[in-house]
Amino acid sequence: MKMTEYVPGTPCWVDLGTTDLEGAKAFYGGLFGWSAQVAEDPAAGGYTTFLLNGEQVAGAMTTMSPEQPVAWSTYVAVSDADAAMTRAEGAGAKAIVPPMDVMDIGRMAMFADPTGAALGLWQPKTMKGAGLVNEPGALAWDELNTRDAEAAKAFYAAVFGWDAKTTPMGEGMEYTELKLNTRTVAGLMVMDDEHFPKETPPHWAVYFGVADCEASVAKVGELGGTIVVPTTPIPMGRFAVCQDPQGGFFSMFESSGASE
Fold this sequence. Notes:
The chain has 2 domains: 11-124, 2,3-Dihydroxybiphenyl 1,2-Dioxygenase, domain 1; 139-255, 2,3-Dihydroxybiphenyl 1,2-Dioxygenase, domain 1. 17% of the residues lie in helices and 45% in strands. The chain has helices at residues 21-32, 81-90, 149-160, 213-222; strands at residues 11-18, 35-38, 48-52, 55-62, 71-77, 94-102, 106-112, 118-124, 139-146, 163-170, 173-180, 183-190, 203-209, 226-234, 237-243, 249-255. Helix 2 packs antiparallel against helix 3. 38% of the residues are buried.
C-alpha cells in the first residue's frame, strides 16, 4: 500500500543503526530486494535510504561508536516533535536525542519510555515517512516488547492518545493492540522469561512483510543471518524472528489475508 501522509500518532518510519553499512545493504538487498540510495548532502553523514519499486521503505546509518548495539528503530509521526517530547518526558521518558532538525526533510527526537524501550519521533517536512507499507519487502508491523505492560499503556496513552485492547492468546499469554481513534497502529507483547532471555532489553520490534515466510527464513540463512524464532503460525498468518549478520534483530510477517 502506497502512503503519502501519516496521521500523527502512527508509526511512519524505521531505520537501522549498524556497524557495517555495506554489509547491511547486501543482506537486506538480497533478502527483500531493496536498492540503496545514499544521501548526497555531506551533512547527512552517509544516511542510506532503502527503496523498493522506487518507494522508500526504510533507512540505515553507521552507528556512532562500535560499542553501540546494532538495532532497528521505529519512529512515530507527530505534528510537533518538541511538544511530543515534552509530553513524553512529563510522562516519565528519558531523552536520548533531543528534538533536532534533519536538514529540510523533518524534525526528529528519540526517547526511552519508562519501561526502557527506545522510540523515535518524526515531524515531517519534505519526507513524510515510508512510501510503501504492508506489502512484501515493506514495513508491516511495529510491536513494543516490554516487561511492564501497564506502565507502557499509560505512557503511550499520555503521549500519543493510544488506547489498549488486550486479548487472551491461551497458555497464559495475551496480546495488546495499541489503537488510535479505533484504528490499530501497533502491538504490545509482555516479555516473559519463558519466551524472552532475561538479558533482552525492552524494545520496539520491527516486522517486514514477506510473501512466503518459510522461503524468506531460508534466504536469511543463505545470506549469513540467524534464525531466532523459526516460522510460527499465528491467527493473522505466520512470522519469524531473525538477526542480520551484524546483530540487528528484525521479524518477518506473512499475512494470511485475514483482517481485524
